[in-house]
Specification:
The complex is a heterodimer of chains A (331) and B (137). Chain A has 2 domains: 34-163, Immunoglobulin-like; 168-329, no CATH class. Chain A starts with a helix and ends with a strand. Chain A has 4 helices and 21 strands. Chain A has helices at residues 3-21, 192-197, 254-257, 273-278; strands at residues 34-39, 50-58, 66-73, 82-83, 86-89, 98-101, 107-109, 112-116, 123-131, 140-149, 154-163, 168-175, 179-183, 188-191, 204-209, 219-223, 244-248, 287-288, 296-301, 306-315, 321-329. The longest helix of chain A is centred in the N-terminal third of the chain and has 19 residues, at 3-21. Chain B is an alpha+beta fold and 137 residues long. Chain B has one helix spanning 2-21, and strands at 42-48, 63-65, 70-75, 85-90, 95-97, 113-118, 125-134. In chain B, strand 6 (113-118) and strand 7 (125-134) form a beta hairpin. The longest helix of chain B is centred in the first third of the chain and has 20 residues, at 2-21. Chain B is elongated, with a radius of gyration of 22 Å. Chain B starts with a helix and ends with a strand. The chains are: A mainly beta (331), B alpha+beta (137). At the A-B interface, loops of A face loops of B.
Chain lengths: 331, 137
Amino acid sequence: MNKLNKLGYVVLIGCLSFAFVACDDDSDKHTLLKNDCLKWTAGPNIAGLDIEFAYAMALPYNTGKIVSAQAEASIAGADGTWMEHNSYYTTASGQMDIPVLVGNPSATNGKTTTVDFVVDTCAATLRYYYKIPEAAKGQSVSFTFSTTASTGEKVSYNMGPYTISKMDMALDLSLSRANCYISIEDMAVYNAQQAAEIPEKIDLVYNFLNLSSTGIEFGHAFAAPAAGPDFLPTGFPENLHKNAKIRKGSVMDAHLARLHLSGKLQPEVYVDDIDLQTIDLANMPNYALNIITDGGLWVETQDGKYRAFIYANNMRTIVGGTISMKRYTMK
Amino acid sequence: MKIYYKHTLMLLFLPLLWIGCYDDLPIDEDGLLITERAECYVSRFELLGVDYNTVRAGGKDAVIDTLACTIDIEVKWATDLKNLYPQFTLAQDCKLDPKITGITDFSDLANPKKYTVISGNRNVKKTYTVNIKIQER
């Protein structure tokens, strides 16, 4: 190995490093104004929920001030889309989210949300909440964040695309001895009289029996109307007839469980579209017994049109409880 | 530069020292070692539902008769017998035939499922019958 070969080797390594440098996005490299963005929300993007971002912008001290910040979505957000006009910081002692007012309340016009700054500041981080519209289901949405400084400079930052889920969600449906007829199609709970009027929509029936003295674990049960009298409550309307496939299985879905609201640790676990598309429900029975708090069940309606994941938020020691549901339309 | 080549070659050959010390037991068609052990029995049996919780009634363990080669287990009332995960604990080095690959249908109570335990030396085979009784309401 002579000096020439060594030199060639060094040149080769040097050229390789340029290959990476060449891929760097340097759109705002030569401006004083800089910006960056984080997506805060995790999990599937479901219509009605927010996608939350933190958009940061800054320029060197004494070189100018920030004039405005803007977020533009590729699909207009639903009512409730907004950008905070407060910037937040954390104190040295670790106190989180101290607000500092920097601008006028945001104005949303179609796809664009803008905050005009009213204070002389060279740095801010604004939070942007995009309320996912029904119209975006099954599509992708992208965002362009931009900011303008008093120096005339303008920089932007692209986020996305993010796929919007086809799922629907219903939270905190209350179950009782009277209100025990569940429609996946309506994502609602009915009483016997209401259920008898819409038999084609009733997919599940909730029942509670305490058979612990006999050693039978029945407890809180969910069964299709076609499951038979062993599983159904007294007073069951005779014209209910639909069948379903039901699979027990617990997922502490963060959208449905919201354990953090009661001071518990909420795992960042989500039921997503693909889970409902691929869960194996072939040959599953039409009932599930002994569903407890934090338990769950996967359901497919008789016609295969809907699949749902039902989470048991709170099942009491006596009859009654609260459930939440994610539903996916299969066809 | 020759020194680099020498060092590289030495590093490549070093692993061979360990490989050379390996005791070469025969391997069966499943890639499992064939040992000298002749023990052949089931020491524990479990049935799980699709939620991976046991379906045994009242927490009673399965009764395993290693002479009659039977496993008797009582499952909870209304257990879905079509969708169960069996779990066998076997004597050391044994294997099971057929293999457990996922959800298993135990619903044909008239024809109970049979599983053959094969010893570590692959010379002893015992076929166990899994008898399921459903808890009465």
